[in-house]
Amino acid sequence: MSYVKMFEMVKNEMIEVLEDTTLDNFPEKIDVLSAHIDLMHSLTRLTFYKQNESVSNELLTDKMNADVSLNSSESKGDFESLQETQDTKFSTEEPIKDLPPSLKDDGGRSMYLFERKLEGGYVAKINGYVPEAIIRKQGLQHHDYVYAQEIESSGERKRFLYSLAKRAEESAPTDRVQISLCMLESRGKQLIVRESMDSTGEDFFKKHPNLEFVIQERDITRLFLEEGDLVDIAFYEGNIENQKVIWVHH
What we know:
It is a single chain. Helix content is 33%, strand content 26%. By secondary structure, it is an alpha+beta fold. The chain has a 4-stranded antiparallel β-sheet, with no helix packed on it. It has a 3-stranded antiparallel β-sheet with strand order 3-4-5. It is globular and about 55 Å long. Keywords: Plasmid.
């Protein structure tokens, strides 16, 4: 399918959403409408790259898949994230000590332990991945418990609707560090971060005045990053060089 046809398809879907939008349900429609706009913007930029920079067809296909795949947890226009679902293909890690992987609420409904990852999160009991967008929408924190309603199953592939069930009883220790509201700067062919507009980020850079983050090429490609973008980055303590852009603010 050509980019023009994809653009028209997304535009028509957006029109259908708008026609179904009322004053009462508009707040519920904002995220979906924003996703359509992001995807249309990505298609426009891909067309520009093809016409003006002679990008290979293979690279263009990879970039397009990163933006329109319903199974991608990392793309800007990820419809599955907006629907609060995701494929459960995710690596299993060591069990968390002293915390049960699942509990029952007063009504007998299962609650599952949530683990915050560098980007997104993981529910080990059901081998479920939680997209970054859902974590932010629900305000999920490391070691919260979540409800997970299975809404689709095909063999080993399952999808869930997540919602907060129970807050962590105490702040859980983690070696994950997040720096929010970072402005991307251009230096030659690189994109770098040297400051943050967030108070926590400001304190971090004051403590490390000579530190700068060089944005990974993979993040620039999959998120179509450019100078002036405002992003959140995350890394694990002692592994700053492998930082990752986990969110782009619009």
